Amino acid sequence: MIDKVFEKSIKKQFEFDEDVASVFDDMLNRSIPFYKQMQELTINFALNHLDKDDYVYDLGCSTASTLIELGKQSNFNLNLIGIDNSSAMLARAKKKCKAFGIDIDLKNEDLLTTNYDHAQLIISNYTLQFIRPLQREKLIKKIYNALNKKGIFIFSEKVISNNKVLNKQSIDIYYDFKKTQGYSEYEISQKREALENVLIPYTDEENKKMILDAGFTHFETIFKWVNFATYIAIK
Q1: Binding site membership: which residues?
Q2: Which residues have a Cβ under 8 Å from the Cβ of 5 and sit 6 or more positions away?
Q3: In the chain, how many domains are there?
Q4: Which residues share a beta bridge with 59?
Q5: pTM strictly above 0.70
Q6: Residue 46 domain boundaries
Q7: Residue of 86, 98, 145, 154 lying closest to 124 (CA atoms)
Q8: Which reactions is this enzyme annotated as catalysing (predicted)?
Q9: Which CATH number characterizes residue 23's domain?
Q10: Which residue ranges make up the annotated binding site for S-adenosyl-L-methionine?
Q11: Beta partners for 160?
């Protein structure tokens, strides 16, 4: 379905409810620049660090698109686990897994309390930004502890700049991108208002510090477009 969630007046903060879940795949492709390319990079790096029967977790898996693609492109068995606290998203994910014939263990659980041990790979695409800063650092430490030695964490985030001028320019470029995807000024404004104080982005430097403080030995940016970035961290 086509994303028209913000064509009407929004009177609540953004949440991953049925309205959003029903159009989420379209929303991702039209709201996140180079989303498909980012997903392909994630899968490419992932497959180079995985072996048969390894455990892979996607935190905030939404409709399970990344795990489904990983399952399709892997030529060996993987234990794929998707975790999300939105029942609407997981209902969509379940239907997609069945349609593509990919076996994924979908869990409706809280990322901060559920267990994901013995992981070789943990993915988190545009999820951390929705977690409050104090809890975010606790989650990163939990992710570190859950990974095997030399395990990897791949995550994507919307980011901000410490430079006010560059930050404003980045936002303007991003809004121009959204207009090219068919979103109106009104829709862009409505979504921005709904996400205020819900989506809290970090700078590249803050993301790096958070990762290294948790104990990871390596942090690297593998993709960047203005104010969107994909990172890889190695335990």
Answers
A1: 35, 60-62, 84-85, 110-111, 125, 192
A2: 19, 20, 23, 27, 191
A3: 1
A4: 83
A5: yes
A6: 5-234
A7: 154
A8: prephenate + S-adenosyl-L-methionine = carboxy-S-adenosyl-L-methionine + 3-phenylpyruvate + H2O
A9: 3.40.50.150
A10: 35, 60-62, 84-85, 110-111, 125, 192
A11: 203
